[in-house]
Every structure is written in C-alpha cells, then in structure tokens.
Request: fold
Amino acid sequence: MRDASEGMQPVLTPAEVAQRLQELGAVLQGHFRLSSGLHSDRYFQCARVLQYPELARELGRLLAERFNELEIDFVLSPAVGGVLLGHEVARALGRRHIFCERREDALVLRRGFEVLKGETALLVDDVLTRGTSCHEMTDLLASHQATACGLGVIVDRRDADVRLDLRVESLVTVPVAVHPPQACPLCAAGVPLDSPGSRHAR
Reply:
C-alpha cells in the first residue's frame, strides 16, 4: 500500500500546512460536537497528519521556532490530541515533555510526571477553539506554583470574541463558526451529529 505521505517534502513552510491538512483528510465537513460542547460544521482531525512521523516532526519544529527566544523548562500538552505534537515541539526545543489527562472532568498529572515550583511551561495542543483546555492547563500549573508562557497549536479556529491572556502561536488560522446546541442550525435541519473528539469518546 502506498504511504499517503510518500512524495511529500518533510520541510514545510507555514503556508503549506493548510494544504497538508486538506490532502491528508484532516479537515472534516459535517455536523460535529466539539470538545467545548459547541457544534460546528467543520472539524480538524490533526491526528491524520501527525500519524506521519516526519510531518509531525516538521510541525513541531515550526511551532518551536515561534518560541525559541523564551526560557522554557518543559512542554505541557493534553491527552490525547496534544501528545504527539507536544513531544515534537519539546524535541525541537531540547526540553522535556509531559502530558495531562482527564479525570472526572479535570486535567490531572499522572504516570509520575512532576511540575516543580517556579517552572515555566509552553502549552501545546492540536486545535484551539474556545481555549477550555488552555485554561485548565494553566490552572493545573498554578496548582503546582508554575506558570505558562505561551500556547502553540496547529490550527487556531477561534471566533474573534475568544481571547486568551497568553501568547498564542498557530500554523494555520481559520475562524470557523460554532453554535450552542440549543441554537445550532445543523440540529434544526436534522443533520446527524458526530462526536469525534476524545473528550466525548466512550
């Protein structure tokens, strides 16, 4: 079977990232429930790109370059969507990488991961929509008396009204409309709802 990444150049410019997402089927059209609980007609399944090690490494390198001037102790990402990308960003920065996991609707550290008082983390996730995971990771760091210096993502799909008190760098910026379930036109039209995110997995 032909590898879907065959023939692709491993070195990407930021302008080419959106094209790779399209080519590898990472941009889904339909009716989706996002991790935030909101509904949208578009979903970014970045795992379809990150499954290719050389592409994952290159995306991590591109994001890491945005934060080269910062003093960072480690990279923190949420499971599962941010784990592969976070690891590659940490590799490019020469820092350690840890990830947090959801337990009873809260992100927690497991597997022996430690955050020390006074450390500074770079947050890394695959997609930014409402900033929910970002806020949760920032709160998690604060509980260990550590801080976040920025957030790096592949896709920033925020509406203009969503703002974070943190530096955000993305490789692709694509504002996409989202709707609360009670005011979703796709629900009103009877379009079947899909929940592809890991937060809703059963």
